[in-house]
Amino acid sequence: MRMFEFKKKPKRLGKWFLACCVLMLSSVFLPFGMEEAQALPTSETEEESALKLVASTSFIGELCEALVGDDAHIKVLMPRGLNPHSYQPTPRDLAAIEDADLVFINGLGLEHQLGLPSGGKVISISESINALTADHDEHNEHNGHDEHDEHDGHDEHDEHDEHDEHDEHDEHNGHDEHDGHGGHGGLNPHLWFSPKNMMAGIETIRASLSDIKPARDEVYRAREKEYLQRLSLLDTQVREIIVNLDEGSRRFVTDHPFLDYYARDYGFEIVGYIVNSFSDQAEPSAREISKLVNLLREEDIRAIFISDSSGKVMKSLAETVVAESGGNIRIVELPVGSLAPIGKRGSDYFDFIIYNTELIVESLSGE
After folding, report:
1. Residue 101 contacts by C-beta under 8 Å, 6 or more apart in sequence?
2. What is the number of helices (H) and of strands (E) in the chain?
3. Domain end among 184, 218, 239
4. For residue 149, which of 37, 43, 57, 281 sits 20 to 30 Å off, Cα-Cα?
5. Diameter of the chain measured on Cα atoms
């Protein structure tokens, strides 16, 4: 009986001892658990306060990233390597737009697939840019942005801090349904081939960010100034690369009007297009092809530049035109619609422009 009682006591002692251990361990680790629990709301608050931005193109995405750094979540709709003229939004893209604080688009019809209304949180970077028409005329009056040669101060752009006064630009913001994608009219959406256009674009983005996050205005302006200086240097570098091309060599044909802003800024002449539409997805008529062939027979043209993402049909058309003209004309593919994948030439905007310039000069100089 005593042996039985002796056996029962250790069992009671074991339960008591186990309970004590649990209490001791809890007292040791509880503070750490409490600290973690207290830290979570701060982390969640920071996460919630981060801006949610949508950029339609990789070019606009880079402008946004240059301004906000890690202070925002940026969703780029058209991934690197994609032809923007063939882009179709996914349900996830549409959800990101709905959830975003600001949506930055190119405008001028490039994002016509989205059917976005102008105004509100949808900001078109083309609203302050001199857009080219199909006839290469400047469409609006914004001083050509030549004043950006000096970027030490941007007080003159304070009018961007309030977007209500941009009502007069509605004709630019509302082109998504028709400009340049249904025929030969409208405004040219290939703004990114001009560093000067990108200067105006980043100013528009900065102003919109400052409106929604005024406490970060000073930071945004400092980053804007740095990026503008880099764009100004890029413009100088392009001019240095092309300086040895004589005037007669600065003439070429493109598959569609994607180099028009570049030609305007740097003194090139585009004598014709395979497809005279702002989208390389359009198809030329037999009459247009015949007209281009006759032009190539009469003119001393060294190169036809086509988009590297325009597809086999466009490349075949270019080969046909060259063959029928009988000329010694190079067909050169250029990166056009987006930044290249990371690790390849043209993966950031600055190398994108320099790489294109190097290919153009090499093709036109006969090197």
Report:
1. 51, 52, 53, 121, 212
2. 10, 8
3. 239
4. 57
5. 122
Distances (CA, A) of 366 to 181, 250, 319: 34, 12, 19
DSSP state of 117: P
Phi and psi dihedrals of 115, rounded to 5? 60, 35
pLDDT bucket at 243, cuts 50 / 70 / 90: very high
Q: What is the pLDDT of residues 19-74, one digit of tens each?
A: 444 444 444 433 333 333 333 344 445 455 799 999 999 999 999 999 999 989 99
CA 321/CA 279 separation, integer angstroms: 19
Share of the chain above pLDDT 70, in %: 71
User: Domain of 185?
Assistant: 49-239
My answer on whether 116 and 231 are in the same domain is: yes
Structure tokens given for 14:
């074991």
CATH number, domain containing residue 318: 3.40.50.1980
Residues 219 and 102 placed together within one structural domain of the fold:
yes
**CA 30/CA 155 separation, integer angstroms:** 54
SS3 call for 122:
strand
Among residues of the chain, what percentage have pLDDT more than 90? 61
Residues in the chain, overall count: 367
3-state secondary structure 264-285: HHHCCEEEEECCCCCCCCCCCC
Q: Is residue 83 assigned to a domain?
A: yes
Model pTM score: 0.76
Q: For 307, left (φ over 0), alpha (ψ -120 to 50), or beta?
A: beta
Give the number of domains in the chain. 2
Q: Is residue 13 in some structural domain?
A: no
- Collapsing DSSP to helix, strand or coil, 216 comes out as helix
Residue 42: inside a domain: no
**Could you say which of 193, 209, 239 is where a domain stops?**
239
Helix (H) or strand (E) holding 76: strand 72-76
127 located within any domain:
yes
Span 176-186, average pLDDT: 45
Sign of CA dihedral 92, 80, 69, 230: negative
Residue with tokens 């549409």: 94
